[in-house]
Amino acid sequence: GKTPSDKDMVQSRHILRNALRYNLAWIPKTFRPDSARHLYVVDHYDENGIRPAASVCYGAAVGLQCARLDDQEMGVSRQEAFRRVAMLVKGVASAYKGNNPRDTGWGQGWQTALWAALVGQGAWMIWDHLDTETRRMIATLVTEEADRFVAPGYTVPYWTAADGHVNTPGDTKAEENAWNACLLQVAIAMMPGHPHLDRWRRVSSELMISAFSLKRDLSSDSLVDGTPSKDWLHGYNLLDDGAVINHYRIHPDYTVTIT
Fold first, then answer.
1. Is residue 182 over pLDDT 60?
2. Are the beta carbons of 3 and 59 closer than 8 angstroms?
3. For position 259, what pLDDT does the model report?
4. pLDDT value of position 256
5. Is the Cβ–Cβ distance between 40 and 33 less than 8 Å?
6. pTM: predicted TM-score of the whole model, two decimal places
7. Taken in order 218, 153, 177, 64, is the CA torsion positive or negative?
8. How many CA atoms lie within 13 A of 46 on its CB side?
């Protein structure tokens, strides 16, 4: 295994330190604090408004809990760093539709499960630093976004169906199936006693297995979650050589979005 002095580990820690230091400074420069509610105000509900904030919630939580950087490296005290991230988590969560009595805000959209996964996992990692209201709002948004995928009528999408019909020319379902699975995995990990757990797990497995599936997987006996691939899949999302079609071309960026 790698040691803390290994050059790759040193470089990785340096990258993480720079990212965390930047993001901790970015938060108060970008969002207005609401001192009464102990949150940063997040009032742009589109991708440019929610996704960066949710990404910082996740990335900063990872840095704070895993890297153990000191105050000088972060540019602020550890206490202040947790305070800023917790306030941003609360701001993103309070902007969610299900947490707003007027049902305005973000949520229930094509990419919103990704945003929910990011802020949800970030919140989960700093749970001890969140107040009761924030925890409730996080549970609400994770649950509501997860329940979309077990609602009547939902089926896992595929770029090409098992019969060879191309359902969505130019638009693989690889990356969206992958990010939707991320949200379901957050829900499963956070709420192992939830009554929808088994249904979440079933759909999550198909989403993960289908995301970067190949045509040959439709006839594969390889076991995934105890079931042959051919029994999980109803189509595929990759070309035979593993490339991904998106925006009507072979797209290198989408080919590497397996995370």
1. yes
2. no
3. 63
4. 79
5. yes
6. 0.94
7. negative
8. 1
